[in-house]
Amino acid sequence: MKELSTYVKIAISLAIAYSFYPHDSSRQLPAFVSSPLTQLQQWFYDVIRPRMERNVIAVPEVFMTTPEIIANRGYPVEIHHVITDDGYILELHRIPFGKRDTHQHNSTFQRRAVFLQHGMMGTDHFWLVTSNNNSLAFLLADHGYDVWLGNSRGNTYARKHINLNPDKDEAFWDFSWDEMGQYDIPASLDYVLNVTGQEKLAAYFGYSLGCSVFFMSATQYPRINDQVDIMIGLGPTVSVAHLNNYFRYMAPFVNIYQLYQRLFGIGEVHTNDGVLHSLTRFICETSELGAKFGYLWLSQIFGYSDVFDQMDYYRLIGHYPAGGSANTMVHLLQNYNFGESFLKFDYGPERNLERYGTPYPPEYNLTLVTAPVFLVHADNDPFAPPQDVAWLKGKLGNLKGSLRVPSPTFSHGDFVWSPRVAELVHKPAIDLLPSPFIHKETYAHISA
Question: Which of 29, 47, 230, 415 could be a cystine partner for 34, CB 3.0 to 4.6 Å?
Fold first, then answer.
């Protein structure tokens, strides 16, 4: 490895420190540490944070929830709740029809449902960051589709369980990518199809980890493959052997990170209302210099973008990161360390034997993904670089095609915030979809 510059060393140190200091009330610290720390955090929330919020640049959507943003943009919105087989409660958000439509119901036609799943440590806000004519969720609704936005366990909208308390029970956070694919995706898709009465989704859109969890689900449950007309993967993060952001510098320390987890009982990481994220927001949203610092921070994760709208940046930083489990981060680092592969979570030899019957984590068989898949990828994507996408293309059981974004500077983050994402990605992807409408009599005949 080349000698790292001082700047890179500092950036990595700050990133690791940030990762090692989640706001997690279930952490079991020694009493002589936890008491002063708890008091300091409470003082921050009660006194400092309200004063900080009054000084940030006023972008209203920073302080809105996803449903409030959808309504604020002039679209209808519904809130739904899904309970997974292992008891997690996920909040889905629905845009049943477009802004230009005056009513939802039609006696002759039914709108086809599409499902959108966000990336790691995010929420469905990823699909709403830019303008109405540039954000995928709104574009799909205006094209006539019934749009459903998913949320993965542990984020802002999925921090509930029928028995476990996320603030008190460490067991709530004992999940990785595996459980999202095993439980969250099947429960969400089943729910959408049940509510709409449809046999198949017109499309499943996944971004980053949203691709991985679909593939995990499809390899375990053959019915998932039959529940979508097409799966479109944007910036697919599956094998990350060629990961090219600061996480690759953290990967060699994954065992230390896991030891740190166990020692201090860390379950939740990167909450949106945590101390460090609140301080980061304050720095990034109170000055032009702070905004440049924030953009530099995002660039270390998502890659550098040529074009970046500052208002979109403010909207994003108000919602991202949105929290998740420490094991979700660990799973990413493990996948990097294992090279070109797509493995289940590595619990160590003893626990692997208990769970998998082998000392090593088994690999997901991607040839079992028989749903039609279309991948959209970019050369400048540090999370899904061309080498890893090429590996994925050779493994999938029913790859129908792919689109290489026609821009040499398009990055992983540009799938979320680029002012040109509709032109370069969304509109070509929408052209691949089946008709947004189905004749009710035809549908009833097919169902029968």
Answer: 29
What does the radius of gyration of the chain's CA atoms come to, in whole angstroms?
A: 21
Rounded to whole angstroms, how far apart are CA atoms 136 and 418? 12
Residues 6+ positions from 189 with CB-CB distance below 8 Å: 115, 201, 204, 224, 227, 228
Strand segments (E) across 154-199: 160-161
Residue 124 dihedral angles phi and psi, to the nearest 5°: -70, -5
**Token representation of residue 422:** 């509709």
Task: Evaluate if pTM is beyond 0.85.
Answer: yes
Place of tokens 């994925």: 392
In the residue annotation, 412 being an active-site residue is answered as yes
| Burial of 286 (C-beta count, 10 Å sphere; 0-12/13-18/19+) | middle
Pick the catalytic residue: 312, 412, 414, 426? 412
Token output for 2: 């080349």
Beta strand residue intervals within 168-251, DSSP E: 203-207, 231-234
Residue tagged 């979809």 (tokens) = 433
Q: What are the residues whose beta carbons fall under 8 Å from the beta carbon of 343, sequence distance 6 or more?
A: 334, 335, 361, 362, 363, 364
Identify the active-site residue in 24, 124, 142, 381. Answer: 381
Q: What is the pLDDT of residues 32-81, one digit of tens each?
A: 444 555 555 555 555 555 555 554 556 789 889 999 999 999 999 999 99
Q: Of residues 208, 212, 407, 411, which has the active-site annotation?
A: 208
Between CA 3 and CA 5 the distance in angstroms is 7
Residue 337: what pLDDT? 97
Q: How far apart are CA 78 and CA 70, in angstroms?
A: 10
Sign of the CA dihedral 153, 173, 236, 280? positive
Q: Residue 396 contacts by C-beta under 8 Å, 6 or more apart in sequence?
A: 215, 366, 367, 369, 373
Tell me the two tokens of residue 289.
């210099």
Quick check: is 447 catalytic? no
Q: Give one DSSP letter per residue of 368-405, joined into a string.
A: G--S-EEEEE-TT-SSS-HHHHHHHHTT-SSEEEEEE-
pLDDT of residue 338: 96
With beta carbons less than 8 A apart as the criterion, state whether 180 and 208 touch: no
CB-based contacts of 149: which residues, under 8 Å, 6+ apart? Answer: 66, 92, 93, 94, 95, 116, 118, 124, 127, 137
Report CA dihedral (224, 229, 235, 240) to the nearest 10 degrees: 30
Degrees to nearest 5, angle at CA 202 with 199 and 208: 120
Cα gap 134→128, rounded to integer Å: 9
